[in-house]
Amino acid sequence: MPDLKALFGGAAPPLVGLDISSTCVRLVELADAGKDGLRLERYASEALPRGAVTDGNIENLDQVVDAVRRVVKKSGTRARNVALGMPPAAVITKKIILPAGMSEEQLEVQVESEASQYIPFALDEVSLDFDVIGPVASSEDDIEVMLAAARREKVEDRVAVAEASGLKASVMDIESYAARAALDRLVAQAPGAGAGQVIALFQMGAQITQCSMMADGVTVYEKEQPFGGNALTQDIVRAYGLAYEEAEARKKTGDLPDSYPTDILAPFLESAALEVTRAIQFFFTSTPYTKIDQIHLAGGCALVPGLLDIIASRTRIPTAIVAPFQGMKLAGTVREQQLRSDAPAYLVACGLALRRFG
């Protein structure tokens, strides 16, 4: 059976999480700190040229490889095993019910047979993996199995990036799964560990906002929306005649004309809040759920000034910016103050790095 590089399986240490987004490459390495839990050993990022990755597709392999090599060198990691992420849109997932008691080999044959019903490609064109979730509550003779499949070429592109950078792709995960794994760790630290709660995660990147709703820790809804921080950068470009790279840099430093907060930033914040409220309303109308207890914001766009407050105000739901390394020890080389401003963009990379611990 074609293998999706242990999409669901564990990985032997050492391992780093490597998140390749449309704008940059982010690396995270975690270590076991014994009774103190986990330690953030190192993290780093490198910007990607525009167009190197588009809609999750690697368009310029050389540029991505160069960025990966730089981020590995910058981080100082000696690990060569990496966990990589696939965009959710590039992976087909399906829960299927199979008879219990089958051997691993029998399961593989049965899963491949079932997969042909759900995958709109020839099986020799896809990488396929599965994970046994557990017994079906209503039938002790059956088990629930998660099937995952991706176009082989999409998987091979990321493996090729790793290999050309002197790394080994040990784990291939789904980016939204990795993000939720990192969030699950945070929720587990909260009072009640999220029991009975519906939690919304909005990962606001450069081009896409990924929305995930979890009830009692189980994902019950997912949706991608074509909205992100690039819209704000483009507005700055048009308003002030700046090059895109300069506009992006000034957006982060706030070095913009006095008219920026009212003329450019405020309309963007309104649009962002509208996207979030629409997603929530669609969630309510398309599922049995009628409440959300907590909103978490992540991604490079999460720290745009005013975004947290306007979303909390418009939704009237408690809203927080994700701190994926909360509760971890920090290695001596990690600057805590800088980490506070960087952390929300590292949710996926953190989740990928957690795969080191199974």
From TrEMBL:
InterPro entries: ATPase_NBD (IPR043129), FtsA/MreB (IPR050696), PilM (IPR005883), SHS2_FtsA (IPR003494). GO terms for biological process: cell division. This is Pilus assembly protein PilM. Residues 15-183 form the SHS2 domain. It comes from the Bacteria. Pfam families: PilM_2. It comes from Pseudoduganella armeniaca.
